[in-house]
């Protein structure tokens, strides 16, 4: 006797709602209008049976990308620790005792040497991060020089320096900056539980300046902060409804660092993390979805699921900013086992 398939009415409804929303979004894009994603439509995607969600994410992914290709960005902390902000996840905040030593801005030669090494390892983008609330004038000159020199190596450049005003964004564009990373981090209604020293609107304003300056936007968030699924959907809605949505969306899984207020938070279920990647892919079909912080603690099989869900970029190199990332050899072995090639690699 054949087994009887039991499908709940709720999951059928969720599936139908998600498909309708995704189709509407695709139609809106074709007609040149902006697709608005409601939190409900995103929750309906989250609520799909895992296999259906993965299938849909792959379908979308394959319309826009080679699903066997991954892009590599290497991070360098050019100014570490002592940050005035109080982001509850961050080991670099001066508000918490984490053992991270504050350093001054790195000399230009050291930055160029690190970029050269990253290029030699196969990275195509070099991302420089500074633990600042916002850069000062003198900092801007020195970072602009770094951008010019890294760009001269033939790499894409990205910096993340905290809040920017319009003049600063224009200055970075003149220096040749390709991407600016500034994350929304979480849903607006959860945000105040995590950060008190700058507002959600401050972040949106910086993103506007970056966009207006003609710099590509790299903007994502962090999960595993103790947020609910609805709040994860709220973050994705904020990102997907930016007009246009970011070219690059890093999805970070909290790296718990002793001394930060969020150390000890219950980790997110691995499948829920994969679902978040899939939902980002479906709602932002043409963005680079970057599987970001948290890979060091992730099994290879889970990383493979993230690629299947539509992630097509990673941070590459044994260090993120202050915490560990998989060794390059481990990543190369993983890509080889999965038959994935890295972008920029000869076919
Ligand atoms: N200071 C700049 C800023 O916050 O705009 C740039 C650097 S900051 C470290 C960039 C992002 O890294 C944060 O927005 C957050 O999403 C992520 N991040 C920081 N600490 C993390 C941690 N412990 N685990 C996972 N992601 C983290
Ligand atoms: C992003 O979204 N993740 C990166 C990058 N942008 C700058 C940073 C992750 C930091 C993880 C904690 C650390 O190493 O200090
Ligand atoms: Fe500072 Fe950025 Fe860390 Fe927040 S996330 S404390 S702004 S370095």
Walkthrough of the structure:
- With 347 residues, the protein is of the alpha/beta class.
- It has one domain (63-342): Aldolase class I (TIM Barrel, Alpha-Beta Barrel).
- Helix content is 43%, strand content 13%.
- It has helices at residues 9-30, 39-46, 50-64, 108-121, 137-152, 166-175, 188-191, 200-212, 229-240, 270-283, 300-308, 328-338, and strands at residues 69-79, 125-130, 156-160, 179-181, 216-218, 221-223, 248-253, 288-291, 313-315, 341-342.
- Strands 1, 2, 3, 4, 5, 6, 7, 8, 9 and 10 form a ten-stranded parallel β-sheet that branches.
- Helix 10 links the parallel strand 7 (248-253) and strand 8 (288-291).
- Helix 4 runs parallel beside helix 5 (137-152), helix 6 (166-175) packs across helix 8 (200-212) and helix 10 runs parallel beside helix 11 (300-308).
- The longest helix has 22 residues, at 9-30.
- The radius of gyration is 20 Å and the shape is globular.
- It starts with 8 loop residues before the first helix and ends in a 5-residue tail after the last strand.
- The relative contact order is 0.15.
- The site of S-adenosylmethionine has 16 residues, from loops.
- 6-(5-methyl-2-OXO-imidazolidin-4-yl)-hexanoic acid binds at residues 75, 91, 129, 160, 181, 183, 220, 250, 252, 255, 292-293, 320-323.
